[in-house]
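User: Please fill in residues for this 258-position structure.
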C-alpha cells in the first residue's frame, strides 16, 4: 500500500460528506509515459501489506465516515484485494467497494470479482491500439478494455445513488482527453455508449505533461477547454450520464496513511 486516506477530490457521487476512502497501491499494469503519479505507479513505495492489513486499513477509513472503500490501481494485486474485501464483509463493513482501475483488465479476473465489487471505475484511455501500444505499453488496449467494460456492466449495471446522492452500485467511466485527440475521444465515447448504455462518464480535462511526456513532442501540447466541453456534450448526446463535477486524475491528492 502506497498510501490511504479520505479523498475529497473524486467525483461528487463518490465523495459525499465523509470522502472516498482511498487505498493506493504501488505499481501499475500499464506503462503510461505521461503518468501523473509516476512516483508510485512506476516504482515500489509504501509498505508491504497482507490482505488482513489492507482490510484493517479499509475498515478504519469506513469507521471515520468515508462513504466507500476506493481501491486505486488494484489490477496487479487483485488477489489480495479480493481477500481483503471478503475480510471487510466478514467484519461487518457494508460501504460500497470501488474498483478504480486503468481499464486494461483481464475478463477472467473480473469474473472472479463478481459479487465483491459494487462500483467499477475504469479509466478508458484509448480507442486506437497503436496509441495504446506507444503511450501505455500494451498491444491491444481497445479490445481488452471494451471486453472488460462489458463484464463490469454485466455485473453492476448503470450507476445508482442513494438519497444522499452517493453512489451505491454501477459503472462510472473516466476518460482523459489527450492533446491532438491522440486517444480518439469520440470513438472512446462511442465504445462506452455501445458497450454500457446509459453509463456514467467523466470526460476529464486536466491533462498535463508528466513523467516521460517530454520524450514525445505531441504529448507536450495543451488541450483546449472547448474541446473538453464539446466532448462532454457529445457524451450526453449519446445517452451517457455526465459525472464531471470535478477534474481530478486517478491518483492525485494522495493523503498518506498515518
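Assistant: Residues filled in for all 258 positions:
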Amino acid at each position: 500500500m502506497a498510501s490511504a486516506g479520505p479523498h475529497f477530490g473524486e467525483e461528487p457521487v463518490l465523495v459525499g460528506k465523509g470522502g472516498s476512502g482511498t487505498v493506493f497501491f504501488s505499481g501499475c499494469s500499464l506503462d503510461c509515459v505521461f503518468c501523473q503519479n509516476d512516483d508510485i505507479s512506476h516504482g515500489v513505495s509504501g509498505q508491504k501489506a497482507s490482505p488482513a492489513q489492507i482490510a484493517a486499513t479499509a475498515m478504519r477509513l469506513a469507521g471515520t465516515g468515508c462513504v466507500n472503500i476506493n481501491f486505486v490501481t488494484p489490477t496487479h494485486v487483485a488477489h489480495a484485494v479480493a481477500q481483503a474485501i471478503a475480510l471487510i464483509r466478514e467484519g461487518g463493513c457494508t460501504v460500497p467497494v470501488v474498483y478504480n482501475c486503468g481499464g486494461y483488465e483481464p475478463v477472467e479476473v473480473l469474473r472472479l470479482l463478481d459479487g465483491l465489487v459494487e462500483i467499477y471505475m475504469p479509466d478508458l484511455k484509448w480507442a486506437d491500439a497503436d496509441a495504446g501500444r506507444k503511450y501505455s505499453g500494451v498491444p491491444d488496449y481497445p479490445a481488452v478494455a471494451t471486453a472488460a467494460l462489458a463484464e463490469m456492466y454485466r455485473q453492476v449495471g448503470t450507476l445508482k445513488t442513494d438519497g444522499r446522492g452517493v453512489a451505491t452500485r454501477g459503472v462510472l467511466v473516466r476518460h482523459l482527453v489527450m492533446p491532438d485527440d491522440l486517444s480518439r475521444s469520440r470513438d472512446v465515447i462511442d465504445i462506452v455508449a455501445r458497450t454500457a448504455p446509459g453509463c456514467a462518464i467523466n470526460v476529464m480535462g486536466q491533462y498535463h505533461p508528466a513523467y516521460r511526456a517530454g520524450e514525445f513532442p505531441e504529448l507536450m501540447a495543451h488541450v483546449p477547454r472547448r474541446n473538453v466541453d464539446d466532448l462532454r456534450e457529445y457524451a450526453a448526446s449519446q445517452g451517457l450520464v455526465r459525472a464531471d463535477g470535478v477534474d481530478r486524475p486517478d491518483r492525485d491528492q494522495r493523503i498518506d496513511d498515518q
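For context: The chain is about 35% helix and 15% strand.
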